[in-house]
Amino acid sequence: MKKILGYCDDWSAVQGGTVNFKVSTYGPDRYEAALVRVICGDDEPGHGLFQEEEIDAPFNGEHPGHLQPIDAGSYGVVPQSPAVDGLKSFTVQAWVFPTTPMKGEQGIITNWADDPATGFALMIDDTGSLAMRVGDGNGNVTDVSIGAPLAERRWYLVSGSYDSETKVIDVRQAPIESTLENLIAGDAQGSADNVAGAGIPLMFAAFPAVFPNGKPASTKHFNGKIDRPRLSAGAMSAEEISAAASNESPCEQNSNIVAAWDFSRGIGTDDIRDTGPNNLHGHTVNLPSRGCKGHNWTGNEQNWQQAPQEYGAIHFHDDDLYDAGWETDFDYVIPDDLRSGVYAVRLRAEDDEWYVTFFVRPKKGTTTAKLAFLVSTVTYMAYSNYHWLFHERFAEATESLWTTLEKTDVFLQEHNEIGLSTYDTHSDGSGVRFASRLRPILNMASKTPLWSFNADTHILGWLESQGIEFDVITDEDLHNEGASVLEPYNAVLTGTHPEYYTTPMLDGLRSYITGPGRLVYLGGNGFIWRCALSDKFPGVLELRRAEDGIRYRDEEPGEYYLELTGEYGGLWRRLGMPPQAVVGVGTIACGFDSSGYYRRTEDSFNPRAGFIFEGIEDDEIIGDFGLLGDGASGSEIDATDPMMGTPAHALVVASSEGHSENTLICPDEIGFHHAAMDGVQSPIIRADMTFFETPGGGAVFSVSSIAWAASLPHNGYDNNVARISENVVRRFLEDAPFTMPK
Amino acid sequence: MYEIDPSRTDLVEEFRNNPGGPFSRELTLVVNRLHVMPMADRHILVCTKRSREWVLAKMPTVRGAKMELYDDQVFDDYYKGVWEVFKRRWKTVTGQDVA
Predict the structure, then answer these.
(1) CB A189 within 8 A of CB A144
(2) B89 to chain A: nearest residue by CA?
(3) What is the C-alpha end-to-end distance of chain B, expressed in Å?
(4) 3-state SS assignment for residue A689
(5) Nearest to A270 by CA among A223, A320, A207
(6) Do A414 and B66 touch (CB under 8 A)?
(7) 3-state SS class at A505
């Protein structure tokens, strides 16, 4: 179905900068590329809103198509070394916690070449059992298997050894004893005349492979955790293996140890450190999870930084992906006269089309408008390649819909290598913590369902229709540069759903608001989750869904601390900065089958709020129309809460009503379920349209609804939702400061 | 778990006449039961032309497996597609065809 996809190496571009575009075709040998400015990406036939502007660019035109593979699956790699190649007798061991032992052959520690079959591999075989494979390079391959499947999610000390004198291969497994289960301990022996050194890098959690185009790859990925791998000269006894496994620094006690890797060193990086005498350091690939509970986790400490020796495991997944690593098809140097805005490279191949979206900001230190549209690129990353709708059994019941997939969803289903979103679980059931933009993102484009990016284009289309000029700034720009990137602007406008915030982003936004800055929060469910970005891994977001919240999947207990920054993860609500304390409102409920409307409150007649309702009748119902649920208050909605920090002087100028039975209170807002948690019965489910001034002369206006922006286009943008939005934006762009009420 | 009574043809008729809802309390239970059936058994729709064409499909049991599209079940009306999904899921869950 999908015949063309692409991505670019950076989403935030500046005049004079270069963006590199990477394209893969699935069948076609040619494709057309064209640069467009995205004005509104909603292409629903009945809406009449789709709009883009074609822009001249050197790359416009025909290009040769080619298939670019992706090597997904995380693993560790240690460069080839004579210390490994020269071993005649050896023992390889590790603590392992397999999560999918029955999923076919999986490499644990491998130094294996296929052609000719050479080296060794401590592995899980196709019966789910621990096994050791050896090859002599002359066509002789020997597998020795324990012959009984490993149990899922249980720790085992596993080892494989070869004695070049006796020719004996010995495989052992010893589970950490359980008080409730009979876990199998055992050993098995075989023989081989010789094991030849493979002369290639050593790998953790995979075997090496090669793509048809000759590009190196990996295969037979291990799902699960590996802790304290060791490689020793000589065939060690069970006691020696156990001693090496227990000891954090085993080389001090046993001079036969060639390498003792300590995965607790380098958490938050891709470094693999060897504490042994040969410095066989390596690195991880595709961002497996680090700082994971090891075989020896006691539970006395929950923070990997306080007890790293108990967090020495790496959790590898066969569907991890950091950088798709595609070759560049063409690049684009942003011209100095290309206005700041939202752009895409439109790709067409046969009957298929795709958009590679990117954003152009003004040169640093310059602005070309008084309004900044803060693009939610970090939230887009969190949702990137979202599989939840067709992975989650209860998705239909949550959203009151019958699963209806797009062609892009079909591609995601059929191509595991494209990676997952932070809303998904890995194939072994563990939560996805990393989401990368260095790969095709199938839900950040024009002509996709109205959520996140494409829902935000309703705002772009509205701004264009009203002639309101704006610059584009991205979340990553705010993260990297802080408040200084916003301060030149009289006002900042958010998208429909600015949900994910790093600490620097939130600090920068709050600093802007408490200055003379004005924030128009034209969405809902904003400022909810702490996440992390890191210079060590550009283009990647990390998320730990600690404790509660609408979280789609649970976070592993004991692993609530982010590895990239060491911060405690989870909701900003639980981290001392709830959204109510930033923008006056925080999420109260979600409902996706229908939306409500707003009714003016007594506060709306306060002279401080007069500008908001210019042209609006006193008893006018606001937003009983819209493209998302036929109302402006819906999807995910926010409300005030003084206990959570809504400023005392905030005005709630309108509140919503008319919500459905399927609109339900968020789990983080309720301590115990009860029979009145829905939009019909609950007295607290509503969206609070809120306004307050700040001491620095600024102000904040919140509509508290994701669905609001989908009501902007109604009746040719001539409606009270658009009117209120424009009233606020125009006043916020005026230089005259706001004053705090007495 | 709620068990659908296959003799409740009145609920089938209610759905057929109003597949977009709102539903009676009893039909809501039926619809929710079909919504939470195992993923691997579900018939779903794939939108092949935005708001113009949908094709019946079956969710694969394995991640990465090819999606099975029913080329002879193509709809130009979304709720005709939903009706087909309802009938197929009813059959899967109750073992009986919709009367």
Answers:
(1) yes
(2) A402
(3) 23
(4) strand
(5) A320
(6) yes
(7) helix
**Which value, in Å, is the radius of gyration of the alpha carbons in chain A?**
28
Which phi and psi angles does B7 have, rounded to 5°? Answer: -80, -5
Reported as a pLDDT band with limits 50, 70 and 90, residue B28 is very high
Number of A to B CB contacts under 8 A, please give it: 69
Nearest chain A residue (CA) to B84: A402
CB B93 within 8 A of CB B37: yes
* Interchain CB contact of A680 with B (< 8 Å): no
Question: Residue A517 in contact with residue A701, Cβ under 8 Å?
Answer: no
Q: Tell me: the pLDDT tens digits for A39-63?
A: 999 999 989 999 999 999 999 999 9
**What is the ipTM for the molecules in this complex?**
0.97
Identify the band that residue A638 occupies on the pLDDT scale cut at 50, 70 and 90.
Answer: very high
Residues of chain A with CATH 2.60.120.200: 75-316
**How many domains, in total, are found in chain B?**
1
Interface of B with A in 18-57 (CB under 8 A): 21, 32, 35-36, 38-39, 42, 44-48, 50-52, 54, 57
The chain B residue lying nearest A420, using CA atoms, is B63
Residues 6+ apart with CB under 8 A from A578: A571, A572, A586, A641, A644, A645
- Report the chain B residue with the minimal C-alpha distance to residue A418: B64
Domain A4-68+324-361 bears CATH identifier 2.60.40.1930: yes
Instruction: Identify whether B3 is part of a domain.
Output: no
A410 touches chain B (CB under 8 A): yes
Percent of chain B at pLDDT above 90? 84
Strand extents, DSSP E, B3-52: 43-49
- Using the Cβ of A219 and the Cβ atoms of chain B, whether some distance falls under 8 Å is answered with no
A contact residues 578-607, partner B, Cβ 8 Å cutoff: 593
Residue B40: is its pLDDT beyond 90? no
Give the domain extent around B86: 9-94
To the question of domain A75-316 being in CATH 2.60.120.200, the answer is: yes
Interface mutation target, options B50, B68, B83, B84, chain A, most CBs of A under 10 Å: B50
Please check whether residue B50 lies inside any domain of the structure.
yes
Give the C-alpha separation, A509 to A371, whole Å.
15
Coil, helix or strand at residue A624: coil
DSSP bridge partners of B45:
A404, B56
Q: Is B4 among the domain residues?
A: no
Q: Give the span between the Cα atoms of A364 and A371, in whole angstroms.
A: 16
pLDDT in tens, A331-386: 999 999 999 999 999 999 999 999 999 999 999 889 999 999 999 999 999 999 99
Task: Give how far the C-alpha of residue A446 lies from the chain's centroid of Cα atoms, to the nearest Å.
Answer: 20
Nearest 10 degrees: Cα torsion A43, A387, A590, A561 = -130
Angle at A562 between CA A560 and CA A566, to 5 degrees: 110
With respect to residue B29, please indicate whether it lies within any of the assigned structural domains: yes
